[in-house]
Amino acid sequence: MTAAGADAAPGAGFRERIGYQPVLLGVVALLASGALALASLLTHDAIAAAEARDLRESLTRVLPEGLADNDILTDVIEIPRGDTSVTVYRARRNGRVSAVVFQVSERGYAAQIQLLMAVDADGRTLGVRIIKHSETPGLGDKIEPAKSDWAQGFAGRSLDDPAPAQWAVKKDGGVFDQFAGATVTPRAVVRAVKGGLDFFAAHREQMLGDGS
Questions:
Q1: Transmembrane region positions (predicted)?
Q2: Domain shared by 104 and 35, yes or no
Q3: Predicted TM-score of the model (pTM)
């Protein structure tokens, strides 16, 4: 045996033959994946509960108090719209659908503006709440309830109030205020709410589910 062979660490040649480094990396990756999967499993219920609380809060903010005596999170139907579907939450009182809540969106200045809107059985808007947007701070973000009460102006509106031609901002001949330096944003929200009312009118019987 040569000196070099005598000095070599036991098993060194074996490690070289099997390529222990890739195997070690594979084991580490497998352990990491298992740890992530376990963490996801342990936190899944907590995350789902938090999401349900947030959703319930958003739904109740667009629905007047006392309008629902059911669990609106579980009274849900899906209605096709284009290439996707719209989730419709139904508020019931004494067993009858008194209002529905669903999400609509429209392209704003920077990106899609997403909002929840509640509509009563007669097709009147009960409330509108912006849930996601990327509009310019200090200008377009006035659609947020924390920044202004502008969105409250949709309460009580319907396809007949105002007339169809007046479903626009005042700059375009409509009845809704625009913001100084930010007309695109309120214009998009007005279109979204009007589109939501059109959607309700087209699917009213299905949403109410009582043949009304």
A1: 23-43
A2: no
A3: 0.74
Q: Is 176 exposed, middle or buried (0-12, 13-18, 19+ CB in 10 A)?
A: buried
The pLDDT of residue 18 is 53
Together in a domain, 70 and 174: yes
My answer on whether 119 and 198 are in the same domain is yes
**Tokens (6 digits) for 154:** 């949709």
Reported as a single tens digit per residue, the pLDDT across 52-107 is 666 778 888 899 988 899 999 999 999 998 888 999 999 999 999 999 999 999 99
Confidence category of residue 45, pLDDT binned at 50, 70, 90: low
- SS3 letters for the chain? CCHHHHHCCCCHHHHHHHCHHHHHHHHHHHHHHHHHHHHHHHHHHHHHHHHHHHHHHHHHHHCCCCCCCCCCCCCEEEEEECCEEEEEEEEEECCEEEEEEEEEEEECCCCEEEEEEEEECCCCEEEEEEEECCCCCCCHHHHCCCCCCHHHHHCCCECCECCHHHCCEHHHCCCECCECCECHHHHHHHHHHHHHHHHHHHCHHHHHCCCC
Domain membership flag for residue 7: no
Gap between the Cα atoms of 193 and 176, Å rounded: 12
